[in-house]
Amino acid sequence: MEDEGDMPVKDDSKRPLIGVIDDGTKTVRFVIYEAERSEELTSYQLDKTEIQPQEGWWEQDPLEIIHHIKVCAEQAIGQLTELGYSKEDLVTLGITNQRETTIAWDKLTGEPLHPAIGWNDIRTDSTVDAILAKVPDRNKNHLKNICGLPISPYFSALKMRWLKDNVKAVRRASRDKRLLFGTVDSWIIWNLTGGVQGGLHITDVTNASRTLLMNLETLNWDPMLCRLFGIHRDCLAQIRSSSEVYGVVNNGSILDGIRISGILGNQQSALVGQNCLLAGQAKNTYRSGCFLLYNTGTRRVQSTHGLLTTVAYKLGPNAPAVYALEGSIAVAGGAMKFLRDNLKLIKDITKDTEHIAGQVFSTGDVYFVPAFSGLYAPYWRKDARGIICGLTSFTTKNHVIRAALEAVCFQTRDILEAMNKDCGMPLSKLHVDGKMTSNDLLMQLQSDLIGIPVLRAQSWDMSALGVAVIAGDSTGVWSCEKWRRHATATDTFLPTATDDDRDARYTKWKMAVQRSLGWATTKKSIAMTGQTKRKGSMVHNIQSFDNTSRKNSVLDENQTESRKNSLASTNSSRGTSLYEYTNGESSKDNSLLEYSMETDKHVTPSIDNRMQSFEYSEDGVNAYEELLKYSARKFSVYVPSKPRKPEHTILDDADYFNAKKECDYGMCQCCDVEKKVLTNWKSIEEIIENDPEIIFDSDDNPIIVEPVHESNDDSIQELSNVFKVIYNKLTHTNLT
Ligand SMILES: Nc1ncnc2c1ncn2[C@@H]1O[C@H](COP(=O)(O)OP(=O)(O)O)[C@@H](O)[C@H]1O
Ligand SMILES: O=P(O)(O)OC[C@H](O)CO
């Protein structure tokens, strides 16, 4: 323990209350704090339904999030009377959320157009490749100087792009200007503030800084990035500061009439909760993933060692943004769930993990790299996959579980090494929080493996606390300035291992990481994945929460099956499928739009029956289907009728949302365009030669190049050759 003397002294006075909505990956919580007291007064939480329709896909039901918020708020507020408070004492709300998770919805009906795509979902793998194909040297760090992030499936722009490419309803909504995109904070606020009746479409700088679309300097959506990812700015939320009064709840819930005055992504919120408000302070939060944030003050430090530059907070519309360097680890506590649910090595994570791993004194030289969906910082390798290595005939489950705990510690050391190189000054202590830190063995291992003291916060949930402080600050009931001076009580773990031992083990860890890289580069056959057998079995029965009737309806698994394993949640009151999804479906119905100059209409593709020459490739994948899937979206042309304006007028966010126009990159109404798509095979060959960009029109309609084909056999021959070239290029294989 340290700094106990500075702990806030409880008195009997009644203080204003601050409510926090904390939407995590696995749970929704509603927490209530008394102003200026860091202990929770009361809270309620509900688990979310886990939806994993395919390997690497992680989805959530957006309506369930809203439903859970209402229930949790009712339950938590219900407990207030017993504590001598009433709902009227709740003066304001803060929202903290899992970041990057992306939702598309219809602004006229309020319906989500697809399940939320989770931050850890890796379905956008090929979308990433397509974007990389458009940047010099396919350099994943090409955009880092603008937005601080590498091009990775982790970030929201890729998920938005995927939704536009693969979900018919999203494309239609985009075309009809009904589409709204948002991270979870935006979805929650839009619903809380009225939804279809004037709900606010806003986000805060910390969440926006996780999209790959925000410029870290202007703190606005960057026109070049929007264009690169083909995301129209009208679909995006207005970017606001993290601490200001945005609006009032108006959704017929128990929260009606309460102000919303703080928004922070959950890792940034933990940074505030841990009181790391000065440059040079850092915290590490251990939950499903693990996120180390290092406050760099108003300086944007550009990492050259694999870390992200992100916004830490902006305490008011006129306050400067404070930035952080972040090391993100995709799998931390998630590995424990894997050991429990997949390998059945443990029954109860909290009770068993520490106990079982503590029965052995070391891992017996076993290393576990839990790269289930690739490796995040500092490697950013989406081709990595999990490995357990160093097994001998003496290895027991105790060693494997201990190795899984050590993996979290080694990954943290990876981040600290990178941070030291970027900042030039090693951390002297590490503040930690998150549910996983209740594991004393993990904490001791962490300190041993990084060689500095580990200071555990006394409450595991710093995320809810952080946003409570800033929501209180903007409404005058809690002061950030006071909070900065407040000292937090901690449990301290000191290193016991020697430097030599620590370094030898770290070297072995690096060797294990090397072995995990590149695993996912070669295509798997269906027999390898067991995908056919598993279809449907991985889809949990989910209940969809209807926005208006709030009736639950159970997902029809057969329907899910017919939708190629994607969640197709049904809305009982309408009896129709809520989510339409086209990826992998027959190309006949994929509405990939061919554009005909003569008719000026979109027409159904007519080339499918001429493509019979394509056969199933060795691993059972139909080359023709693959081909259409890729080529249709990638080989589109877009020719503006008038030249682009030579100068870009970049309006700031407020101007943009007031004027609703933007004279840049043909993305606004005033830059009307004419589409010219007539071309011939020669120009298609040229397009292929020049490694085309994915270009979408201003409404984001993908347009297939309409070939001028002669009606003789040669053209058929030529057609397949052309597509073979495309196919070979895209898959780096040699289809002959
Ligand atoms: N005592 C423990 N030892 C090891 N891992 C733990 C322990 N308690 C919780 N965890 C892990 O920590 C994670 C807790 O996640 P949680 O805080 O619910 O956040 P999230 O929203 O990220 O899922 C889970 O993945 C769980 O496996
Ligand atoms: O899994 P959570 O809820 O700790 O949050 C995840 C992070 O915000 C992802 O960036």
Give helix % range. Answer: 25-40%
Mean pLDDT: 76
Beta-strand content estimate? 15-25%
Number of helices: 23
Overall geometry = globular
Report the major sheet: 7 strands, mixed
| Secondary structural class | alpha/beta
Rg over CA atoms: 26 Å
Q: How far is the first residue's CA from the last residue's CA? A: 69 Å
Strand order of the largest sheet: 15-16-14-13-19-20-21
Brief synopsis:
By secondary structure, the protein is α/β, with parallel strands linked by helices. It is 31% helix and 18% strand. The strands form ten sheets. The protein has a seven-stranded mixed sheet. Strands 3-2-1-5-12-11 form a six-stranded mixed sheet, with helices on both faces. The protein has a three-stranded mixed sheet with strand order 27-26-29.
